[in-house]
Amino acid sequence: MSIISKDISKAVALLNNEELVAIPTETVYGLAGNIYSKTAITSIFTTKQRPLFNPLIVHIPSIHHLDTIVSAIPEKATQLARAFWPGSLTLVLPKKDTIPDIITAGKTTVAVRVPNHPLTLELLKQLEFPLAAPSANPFNRISPTTAQHVDAYFKDAIQMVLDGGACKNGIESTIVGFENNEPVIYRLGSISVEDIEAIVGPITIKNKKENNPEAPGMLDKHYAPTTPTVLSHDILETLTKYPNKRVGILAFKEQLKNDKVTHQITVSKIGDLVEATSKLYEALHQLDHLNLDVIIAEIFPDYGLGKSINDRLQRAAHAS
Ligand code: TXA
Ligand code: MG
After folding, report:
1. What is the pTM of this model?
2. Does ligand 1 come within 6 angstroms of the Cβ of 61?
3. For 66-117, what is the HEC assignment?
4. If DSSP codes are grouped into helix, strand and coil, which group holds residue 109?
5. Contact 89, 176 (CB under 8 A)
6. For every one of its 320 residues, what pLDDT tens digit does the chain have, with 9 covering 90 and above?
7. Residue 175 Cβ < 6 Å to ligand 1
8. Which numbered atom of ligand 1 lies nearest the CA of 137?
């Protein structure tokens, strides 16, 4: 067990000592360390079993720290940062020479955001360095949205989880990079495409590894439960393919009447995509702990946050 606590001064002491602390954000929990400590950053990669080619996101306390991290800021990046920070938008921009190569996996760009969680903002203000923080899950697993999820994954491997309760948004930040000063979405996430387009106009989406070597972390199989997961437009129809199996269902708003189902979770009975997003990973964590033969997940409406949910479900289902 790691210590699960709200004690910011303890987190400060550990981080100053080049140790890792899991931190709450409004998206998912992160596994945080001092970006300038080789010891801390190496330990992030080994603890997560994350390949070194996959770069980390740098977390800063406010927009005013951005120019200590990046060397150029396109106009549209400023507009997006002003619109969404603190919040679930990560910007990929040319890095300053002072940012260690291990953070960026040798790339000339760095990913950076201001998270929107009171405990973590306070923590960042008290530290003299930014925090690198990938999601606090072992490589390829579902991201944690509670302190308990983090503890279940890492136990003694990390000393402390700063307990900020359940993450409000529930999926990772939306990542936006720039090509010829024009924004490009590298990862769908907690801020919808429509909300970003309302600030900067029509935007290209390059969130598949086939069309984007710029987003090295966008593996097809990712965010995955260990239980085989299939996607469906018609759950009742898909159910007929699994007679005599232990089946779990993840549905958007309908509650199914079917006594063959072992467990079902409906993420938003009122059909609200924001609520559905906030409950998505908790639902997958729960279903994954029931020794099911298969999880059938409903395909969500393909707009707003539904698009981001479908992206994660497709990766969860890939090759299973
Ligand atoms: O919501 C979030 O973004 C959470 C919280 C903890 O802030 N963090 C998170 O980090 O999801 P992680 O490491 O699980 O995902 C970071 C993604 C990876 O897909 C990585 O490849 C991409 O960001 N990334 C990081 N630096 C990049 C860069 N310079 N260029 C392109 N993609 C980059
Ligand atoms: Mg991750």
Report:
1. 0.96
2. no
3. HHHCECCCCHHHHHHHHHHCCCCEEEEEEECCCCCHHHHCCCCEEEEECCCC
4. strand
5. yes
6. 789 999 999 999 999 999 999 999 999 999 999 999 999 999 999 999 999 999 999 999 999 999 999 999 999 999 999 999 999 999 999 999 999 999 999 999 999 999 999 999 999 999 999 999 999 999 989 999 999 999 999 999 999 999 999 999 999 999 999 999 999 999 999 999 999 999 999 999 998 765 565 666 667 777 789 999 999 999 999 999 999 999 999 999 999 888 889 999 999 999 999 999 999 999 999 999 999 999 999 999 999 999 999 999 999 998 65
7. yes
8. 14
Among the listed residues 218, 227, 57, 223, the one whose alpha carbon sits nearest the alpha carbon of residue 149 = 223
Going along the chain from its start, the domains and CATH numbers come out as 3-205 (3.90.870.10), 229-318 (3.40.50.11030)
Cα–ligand 1 centroid distance for 178 (angstroms)? 15
CA-based torsion, 190, 113, 86, 42: positive or negative = positive
